[in-house]
Amino acid sequence: MRLLKGLFFLIVFLVAVFAGVGWFLPDRVEVERDIVIDRPPAEVFALLDGFGRFNEWSPWRDYDATATYEYAGPARGVGAIMRWRGDAGEGSQEIVAMEPPNSITVKLDFGTDGVATSHYLLRPAGAGTRLVWRFEFDAEGHLVSRWFNLLLDRMIGPDYERGLADLKVLAESQPAEVAPPPAEEAPQEPMEGEAAEAGEEAAAGDGAEEAPAEASTEGDAG
């Protein structure tokens, strides 16, 4: 009987600690990783503004061999959607905002596991790009989710690092875009025919001085 009572009070104590501490844990959590890619922002942005090439660098592409993918909306830009379904779960991601070539915001819907937001932030770094991949989640007051937030960095941080490394390899393996050379100014062709003669006459007229009027040699009649 004492053992049962002790177990009961232990459970009550643990629940109280769980609820009490959880009350003070933050709702919002961010996980962020970054990498420098030896390509300008516009070229890196072109790999992220749609989902057509996402599985070429996604850190989760090999996690579920049964996963199938479906695409909706435009191929690129706001409204582009990618849905997945497999033994490991299902969900979707949708581009909801962008500012080329500086940022892309993606809404992540994990179904019963909640909704989160992902950001790609691109900034020039010399001749390349510093890319920040940020994950944001709001527990919205749920105690279990607040405790879960404490583990997020260790859970998905390594995945973000692997994804960024693979994206770097993909971006840098592509031929660099070469800007066309500036157009040379065409040489001015010499004037021909009447236009040339008119130009010569005008030049001669500008340099000649006006001759003085000839004095009269006749005297007055007397």
What would you note in describing this structure?
Residues 173-222 are annotated as: Disordered. Pfam families: Polyketide_cyc2. Residues 191-200 have a biased composition (Acidic residues). InterPro entries: Polyketide_cyclase/dehydratase (IPR019587), START-like_dom_sf (IPR023393). The chain is of the alpha+beta class. It has a domain at 22-173: Alpha-D-Glucose-1,6-Bisphosphate, Chain A, domain 4. Helices cover 33% and strands 27% of the residues. Strands 1-7-6-5-4-3-2 form a 7-stranded antiparallel beta sheet. A hairpin with a 3-residue loop joins strand 4 (89-99) and strand 5 (103-109). The protein is globular and about 80 Å long. The model is unreliable at 202-222 (pLDDT under 50).
Short description:
This protein has 222 residues and is an alpha+beta fold. The protein has helices at residues 2-24, 41-45, 143-173, 193-207, and strands at residues 28-37, 68-72, 81-86, 89-99, 103-109, 115-125, 128-138. A hairpin with a 3-residue loop joins strand 4 (89-99) and strand 5.
